[in-house]
UniProtKB/TrEMBL annotation:
<feature type="compositionally biased region" description="Basic and acidic residues">
    <location>
        <begin position="238"/>
        <end position="267"/>
    </location>
</feature>
<dbReference type="InterPro" id="IPR034649">
    <property type="entry name" value="Hip_N"/>
</dbReference>
<dbReference type="InterPro" id="IPR006636">
    <property type="entry name" value="STI1_HS-bd"/>
</dbReference>
<feature type="region of interest" description="Disordered">
    <location>
        <begin position="372"/>
        <end position="395"/>
    </location>
</feature>
<dbReference type="GO" id="GO:0005634">
    <property type="term" value="C:nucleus"/>
</dbReference>
<feature type="compositionally biased region" description="Low complexity">
    <location>
        <begin position="268"/>
        <end position="279"/>
    </location>
</feature>
<dbReference type="InterPro" id="IPR041243">
    <property type="entry name" value="STI1/HOP_DP"/>
</dbReference>
<feature type="domain" description="STI1">
    <location>
        <begin position="301"/>
        <end position="340"/>
    </location>
</feature>
<dbReference type="GO" id="GO:0046983">
    <property type="term" value="F:protein dimerization activity"/>
</dbReference>
<feature type="region of interest" description="Disordered">
    <location>
        <begin position="47"/>
        <end position="120"/>
    </location>
</feature>
<comment type="similarity">
    <text>Belongs to the FAM10 family.</text>
</comment>
<dbReference type="Pfam" id="PF17830">
    <property type="entry name" value="STI1-HOP_DP"/>
</dbReference>
<protein>
    <recommendedName>
        <fullName>STI1 domain-containing protein</fullName>
    </recommendedName>
</protein>
<dbReference type="InterPro" id="IPR019734">
    <property type="entry name" value="TPR_rpt"/>
</dbReference>
<feature type="compositionally biased region" description="Gly residues">
    <location>
        <begin position="372"/>
        <end position="385"/>
    </location>
</feature>
<keyword id="KW-0677">Repeat</keyword>
<feature type="compositionally biased region" description="Acidic residues">
    <location>
        <begin position="68"/>
        <end position="93"/>
    </location>
</feature>
Amino acid sequence: MSCPFSQDSLEKLKAFIDFCVQKPEIIQLPELSFFKIYLESLGATIPRGESMSSDIPETPQTNKPEEPEPENVEEQGESEPESELEFDMEGCIEPDVVSSDQVMGDASKVPTEEDTDKADEKRIEAMSEFSEGNYEKSVALLSDAIVLNPASAVLFVKRGQSYLKLNKPNACIKDCTQALELNPDSAAGYKFRGRAYRLLADWEKAAQDLRQACKIDFDEQADEWLKEVTPNAQKIEQHRLKQERKKTEKELKERAERVRKAREAHAKAAAAGEADSGSDAGGPDFGGAAGMGDFYKLLQDPEVMAAFKDPEVAAAFQDISMNPANFVKYQSNPKIMALISKLSSKFQGSGMGFPGGMGGFPGGFPGGFPGGFSGAADFGTGGAGTKPPEDDGLD
């Protein structure tokens, strides 16, 4: 029996076997399960490696179709989520769950002088515990002080600082936010809340609070914390500005495209109008003027064009052009009739003469207006509501 494999295939098989001898754990790869089953059927023992070595080369891919490149890389960047930005996360901690036992006091309570004195005593005692590292006791004492004097911003700031030492940034944020509601100029409130945001990797809020703390009352520690969060905050800000810029550019491009299409449509409509006027060359002579070509030139008047930008006007004239008899539907519409009067006056001023010597629109108006009407009051040769003649003589 001759070997059914080519020399090249045999060389590849030999290279694979040699590699398996050096790295037997490769047999554990799912792609080689068929080979593993075969070896086990022969009684072989397969090493069960916990993890594959990082230096195992990737299996070469043959005849693999190339991945199509994205048509618009810039548009892909528009959807780049903020979470894909790389930040220095050193020092960040897992968020804490704010306890329902966090005492906030009775906001409606008006503390007496005695309450204020007792609260101050509790605060002094709490600061002593804080300096000795007994942060839990400090929190408990300040909670008692807050019950006595819930109107003191200092008490909430101090307890927020204690929570910060206990790695409870959300509890700190809650206390400092309350302190800032009581005293919007509390530099310490902004400082410790900014630090809490930093621990939660909320870089922008951290930078805003720490910047405000330094603005109210410059503090070296707050400034140091601000410098620490600024690089990450700037990355987010620049990312947002980039997305806003791309969004604006996209909107401008879309707007320009709409304008271009509108201009093309307008040019096509004008060209079609001129073609229609040319096809009526054998029609009636409008006082020796250029005929319907002049009529369409008058339609290019800026005032007339502005009027036709009104959807209601455009729809009405399209309706009339399809069936001149529909004119009667718009005789009570002052907007439509005002434009008709304007057009009629322009025709009369152009020196055009129409059949029968009547001023007004030519019978060749797109769709076939009647033999002529002079302004908003007349339709054909009769008054308002007169039925248009069946034959205007322009066919």
